[in-house]
Amino acid sequence: MTAQTEASLRARALKVIPNGMYGHESVALLPDGFPQFFSRADGAWIWDSEGNRYLDFMCAYGPNLLGYHHPEVDAAAARQAALGDAMTGPAPVMVDLAETLVSMVGHADWAMFCKNGTDATSMALMTARAHTGRRIVLVAAGAYHGAAAWCTPGPMGVLPEDRAFIRPYLYNDVASLEAAVAEAGDDLAGIFASPFKHDVFVDQELPDPAYAERARALCDETGALLIIDEVRAGFRLAKDCSWSLVGVAPDLSCWGKSLGNGQPLSALLGAEKARGAAGSLYVTGSFWFAATPMAAAIETLRILRETDYLAHFEALGTRLRVGLDAAAAAHGFTLRQSGPVQMPLIMFAQDPDARLGYAFSQEMLARGVYMHPWHNMFLCAAMTMADIEFALAAADEAFAALAPRRASVQPSPRLLALLEQAAAGGH
Amino acid sequence: MTAQTEASLRARALKVIPNGMYGHESVALLPDGFPQFFSRADGAWIWDSEGNRYLDFMCAYGPNLLGYHHPEVDAAAARQAALGDAMTGPAPVMVDLAETLVSMVGHADWAMFCKNGTDATSMALMTARAHTGRRIVLVAAGAYHGAAAWCTPGPMGVLPEDRAFIRPYLYNDVASLEAAVAEAGDDLAGIFASPFKHDVFVDQELPDPAYAERARALCDETGALLIIDEVRAGFRLAKDCSWSLVGVAPDLSCWGKSLGNGQPLSALLGAEKARGAAGSLYVTGSFWFAATPMAAAIETLRILRETDYLAHFEALGTRLRVGLDAAAAAHGFTLRQSGPVQMPLIMFAQDPDARLGYAFSQEMLARGVYMHPWHNMFLCAAMTMADIEFALAAADEAFAALAPRRASVQPSPRLLALLEQAAAGGH
């Protein structure tokens, strides 16, 4: 394959794709200079269309958990693909995978598979309504649960009716949650929560156990279903539902992204009491029962069970966080690093329009490190401590390059527009 | 891999999957004895978990267009997979594929990719609303456009608000369409149509050109968007949008299933005038930009352009239809075969509860031919005339076996329940 220039690809894309690209991987959401197209990925690294290599802290926005092209996962996928993938019915691996997930995820008694994270959250919403015969579902303000009309952060194409019974509360705020539950009265069907607060543009927050426990108790009192959206964080914090870390079991959990280490697969897992409602839905998709991603997921989960990847993530993430703080301080900067070290969000103190964050991520990109200025990032198990040291050396240079021009950095007009949208409750 | 019994797989599945299976590939919708699980697929054939082989007239419900494991498509997919699949941005193949589709599909000026057919139809719905600033979308009664809350044929988990502005009309009925448009008044956003009427349980109908032209004219008069849902029929009737056969160009078309010959991919294609609205949506998915299915689609489309697969489909389908009618008549049966021969629907005359269709499909299954009693079927390009003759020989035996017990065949209670649901407007 001939290398193609980013500019020529963008010009061609602009003709045949609205805006040249859309969705969460559009560079319209990123600083100038970020490549839109990638020609290759391997382990912890990605290559743009011109052959530049980057240490990838976005991991495909989550799917890359063990490293791109993990040999054992790819081999398992290839073995199944040689037998059959999308067929006229599922393969036996569907049962194997459901059993595997039920055995690993404490609250789960059953599994349903789908393709998008949004499929899983939409099925959770419908299951909660079918289970209770009620309508109102509470969602933390600013949380992302997918891009269907009921949840997309963009306003276009959405009717008020699409979210007539979606009501906000404040993550980690017990009083806010209680007020929203009280207001829902006898029409409360469910409560959504992310495993931790991983909204864009704002500091991440781990779940307060008191909030998690209260959410559970309120669901128990009202009969509503508690739903954890693990699509982004699943298996990055625990080899179980993330809220097992705070001792709270949901009724439903939504999974995707990392489940098959990049193979397209998502899932809704549920407790026994929600089985009847989930089974009453008519939900399906042309590729939902394809076997190859399921075989990849079974192998991914085996590796998760048998390795200490979580300790590896914690060691890498801690070194990155500590090292970045030190490098920033050495050049007169103060960072705001938040969330679990395995899913870092790196912003700057006193940087309300993120102009420093934008400029820093550009300096990092120029040094071969792909970091996101306002979205949580991801580690993958293929990353080594040497990779982290590479990133820290790049950061030292990036801060040094940024320091003398600190006062003259301008905010991005695109970013200002995005921030306005975020302030209005969108993405 | 050890062969597993269907019974043991079903017993295990029942524990960890609601009802043991769900969606369009659930055998709850099929006669007793149909296998739920498949261990292998190749060309035009599938093998169940116990090793029984069937000539597969369902083609994974559509994705299998060229044959399972088509060597050139699989090679193209493998080449891209070796480079990168789900990455932190799309690969150049995304642009190549968008250009390819725009060059093949007459009405299309741009493409957006997604995973499920339902993603494409939901994006079409939102694009129509964003484009017009209006709410009402007309859908032919009984048509299937996906399994999201606004369109799923199942009632559970759905609120009246989810489909508050979805209004029915009768396919091929100009007066009905005109009345629905008039009733929508100045709130009409779009009109959905299938390429032909391929509803379940009833005879299929090719589109009346007068109906297609009137739908186009009504959209032109009102500014609403005309949307063709090609998810099921795409590239099976034409190497262009199916309505090119009646000389009508829609504003949007939805594609999926066959696009990547089994690789998970769907797409929304649109005319220039809808580009701005489509680009204004925030729609996305974790795996939407994965490169491997796009590479498979480019190769699939190349093969479609360069081969006479449509003539092959027509020859196979015509021989099947004529041969089945003759075999049926020889044993005293009359069939109702409807729709294009490339996507046959085979039912029995005077069989309102489909008991004969159920019994016939069981007899065919026992002879190694997988046919569906109430859903349109599919051909694949890997099928040969010898395969069709194999099916016709099986049919001759099946009719012969069915004839003496014709009077004593009982209807399926599960089917009766399904028919009641269909009569109520569902699937």
UniProtKB/TrEMBL annotation, chains A, B:
Its cofactor is pyridoxal 5'-phosphate. GO terms for molecular function: transaminase activity. Keywords: Aminotransferase, Pyridoxal phosphate, Transferase. Pfam families: Aminotran_3. The keyword Transferase applies. InterPro entries: Aminotrans_3 (IPR005814), Aminotrans_3_PPA_site (IPR049704), PyrdxlP-dep_Trfase (IPR015424), PyrdxlP-dep_Trfase_major (IPR015421), PyrdxlP-dep_Trfase_small (IPR015422). Belongs to the class-III pyridoxal-phosphate-dependent aminotransferase family. This is Aminotransferase class III-fold pyridoxal phosphate-dependent enzyme. It comes from Novosphingobium organovorum.
